[in-house]
Records
---
Amino acid sequence: MVDITNTDDIMCTTTTRVVSLSPDSPQHHQREIMADCHAMPIAMPISTDTTSEAPMMTSTTMPVANTSSSITGKRSDIWKKYHINTTVLGKGHFASVRACIDRTTGQRYAVKSISKTDSSAKPGTISREIKLLQEMKHESIIQLVDVFEDAEYVHIVTNLCHGGELFDKILEKTADDNGVPCFEEHEAAKIILQILNAVSYMHDHSIVHRDIKPENILFDSKDADSPIKIIDMGLARKHKDIEHLTTIVGTPYYIAPEVLKKKYDKSCDLWSVGVIAYILLSGYPPFNGKNTDQTHKFVVQGRYSFPNRDWKYNSDESIDFVRRLLTYDPEKRMTVEEALDHPWIVRYANQDTVMKDTEGKSSTDNVVPVKGLSKPRSLLLCGSRRKKNAQKKIRKSMFGIAA
Ligand code: ADP
């Protein structure tokens, strides 16, 4: 039993995510590689885009004790309202995320505790993340529930996602020996559709996320057809009155070329969605250098391909969709509305391709192929060579980066 009166407990657990893989297993190696894909976002402040915003007031329940060096404008004791579990669900650049329980209702949530003493966690960045989260009310974006601040931490309470990261699902899928390199098209399209709906909502609110990647996409539940939620507005930014953003922020594999060139707008999010779509359909990233510098170089060159051996069973529509998002010139790249209208997305948008079996469990085995798009099951099952190629590529890329 945890001593729930001890706030130091938050600091004591340094565990990252629990991984129960043997060090020699292929999945372990993939995880190591992807740990690099799971790279820290970069933030290189330059020019006017780095202006810190003024401290903001939040809807906390406790009275203000001391507002000196306060980020939210209020000090309050999260432990009075919530019990926080010791197990760390996830660790990001600035924060640790744990499950917490509302002492009155028994409802479970997630709490992201950001250390105020970490020099890289700037007060303006934390208050901006809270402010942007407060604005977001969309089924595919994590919902803010509460904010607390004590002497050492800002605690952001949100809904709890039980299904893990899309990142882990990609590893799982690439490790499955089912003849499919990663996701089947209908599965990929369903995830991308939800991401696009969330991006559309953010862009409508003049918010550019700037760090859309599989680690920031969580599954609500462990069900096969679980909805997704986009998390982490830590690098997000309002762009309404700014013609161009200039700060280099993002994560190497997913960053758009114009971000690296320091002149970009919200269309950088669409590039990142294109990278994710590419990964979901192939099992490996399109821009994949030996290290961050080389990955950035490939991104700036806009050099990527659809190797025939890996992509030959994918529909023309899926390839066209990815190509139109990984379009170098942001002016020619699809907008989020165009992406939502793309035939590949439209085909799957209104389909519930995941059938429920008689016991109510989700199953993708009964999926009815969409004419002209889905690969016949027999072909998928024969695709183990393709699968091995994809896995080989992932490993190669990861070892390259780890070297
Ligand atoms: P940071 O801003 O420090 O990168 P994130 O917000 O990305 O932190 O959270 C880090 C990790 O914690 C995520 O990648 C995820 O695994 C886990 N996590 C974050 N929010 C939730 C949530 N609402 N439910 C479950 N796990 C979460």
---
Amino acid sequence: EKPVVVIVGRPNVGKSTLFNRLVGERAAIVEAEPGVTRDRIYREAEWSGREFLLVDTGGVVAAPEGAIEAGIRRQVAQALEKADLALFVVDAGTGLMPEDRVVADLLRRAGKPVLLVANKVDRFDPPPALGEFYALGMGEPLPVSAAQGLNTGDLLDAIVARL
Ligand code: GDP
Ligand code: MG
């Protein structure tokens, strides 16, 4: 069947915005506030003649401190079970956050191929400073702006190259 590409990351990094951008429609709900329960959303996507299933994840339940981490952990683990490739989205605007390390640990444990995506790079001049994301041990971050559609063609190239 079609390869499965799962978008993961802590809340509010722009996963749903990226999902919508990559499938070319507003299928996922974009929330200004993190902590809203959402189901996983699936859409077929195609690039350079390669078809794949793209999966958005969210569903981190608003909860007392500490429980958010557990929510991320559970959902990412479930989504990754059927994944052929994970898009690990981080926020270039906020920089590296502790929850990013939680997601990175889960991805390492799942043992699936990962593409690190630095979202919210809304301008490339001057070049974005993404050096801190190397600390995640997920290789070179690929800068995009999901909201503005910047560099998302390069991201799609990188996705299909790994499938
Ligand atoms: P999710 O929780 O990871 O699914 O994040 P959302 O897609 O719901 O986006 C969270 C917030 O980030 C929303 O206010 C989006 O409009 C904003 N956002 C998403 N992508 C970008 C981007 O490329 N640039 C900027 N500046 N904001 C973005
Ligand atoms: Mg979302």
